Amino acid sequence: MFDPTLLGRLQGVRIPTLVLWGAPDGVVSPDYGRAYAAAIPNARFEVVPEAGHLPHLEQPVTTFRVLDRFLDEHAVT
Questions:
Q1: Domain ranges across the chain
Q2: What is the pTM of this model?
Q3: So what's the pLDDT on residue 65?
Q4: Long-range contacts of 28-35 (CB under 8 A, 24+ apart)
């Protein structure tokens, strides 16, 4: 699952992007998420407290609150 070209290609993303990460992710450090968000123009990085690698399952209420807020901010009317 390692792609050495991914980080360089992320700069080409041109849509609003939310990088959502579980704070104590034991599989992949939040620093990876921060690096991805920093590589994507205008991306936002959000941490879900008390969620590990699967925030949508471990903290669904918090996760979907963050997602809903992001989608509301970027909704096309």
A1: 6-74
A2: 0.85
A3: 96
A4: 28/53, 35/7
